[in-house]
Every structure is written in C-alpha cells, then in structure tokens.
Design a protein that fits this description.
Elements (H helix, E strand, L loop, with lengths): L17 H4 L4 H4 L6 H19 L13 E7 L2 E12 L3 H20 L2 E14 L9
Parallel strand pairs: 2-3
Antiparallel strand pairs: 1-2
Helix pairs in contact: 3-4
Length: 136
C-alpha cells in the first residue's frame, strides 16, 4: 500500500465516518443510566472536597474519617444522604448548608441529574488538638 505522509488512509476522508450517519436520532437511542453507587461515590468525593474547603478540617491521621454517601435515583432526580465529621468549634448549621449546596451543585454538574434533596448527618465533631488528653 502506497500512501504519502499526511494523506488519509483508505476509508478515511474529510467527511464523517459512515457508521455515524447510520445512528438513529438522539431520542430513539435510549437513555444513559447512572447506578446509585456511582452517584454515591461522586457525592462522597464532592463532600470530601467541600468538607476541606468549607469546614477547614485538619488533614492529619487523627482527623475526620472520609465522608460517607448514599444515593437514590428516580426518574432523573436523586436524593443524597451524607455522613461526615466536622471540626469543633464551628458554625454547624452554616457549614452544613454550604456543604449541602456544594455537593448538590457538583453532583448535578457531573451526572446531569436534578438533586432533589441532600440530607447531611454529622457523625462526630473533631477537635483541632486531637492529641490533648481528657480534662479531669
């Protein structure tokens, strides 16, 4: 086979591939389904990012556990439940609202699903000085 550098290979041309022309219109192709566990993992990662940005959580080993998340999708909407640690002292209602907003926005952006509800449970409050002993 003789081809010059830069010339298209046989079957390739300036137009779209023949296979793309045979695709049915988008409404007839079906739908993309994202499993709940995938949405939950996306939400957990978004919660981890929001937790470090909004709550200034220490990143040492004695700090908080990774946020947990579960998701329930139905007809293009999702309900999320998050469980996470927050630092003490902090303005818990304000920080929780900011985290809920950040997670809902990020999940909607990455999945295309409408986030109907985000429930956030604070598992525990983490003090900044975790090595300090108990006061007697």
């Amino acid at each position: 086979m003789n081809t010059r550098p830069g010339s298209p290979l046989p079957g390739e041309g300036p137009g779209p591939p023949a296979r793309a022309a045979a695709l049915p219109p988008p409404p007839e192709r079906g739908a993309t389904v994202i499993p709940d566990r995938v949405v939950a993992r996306i939400a957990a990662q978004a919660a981890r990012t929001a937790q470090s940005r909004r709550a200034a959580v220490p990143s040492d080993r004695s700090g908080p556990e990774a946020p947990g998340a579960s998701a329930a999708t139905r007809t293009g909407t999702v309900r999320l439940h998050l469980a996470m640690d927050l630092p003490y002292p902090t303005d818990i209602p304000a920080v929780c609202e900011q985290i809920r907003h950040d997670v809902a926005e990020r999940v909607a952006q990455l999945t295309g699903l409408e986030v109907a509800d985000v429930t956030l449970t604070v598992r525990r409050l983490v003090t900044a000085d975790a090595n300090r002993g108990r006061v007697r």
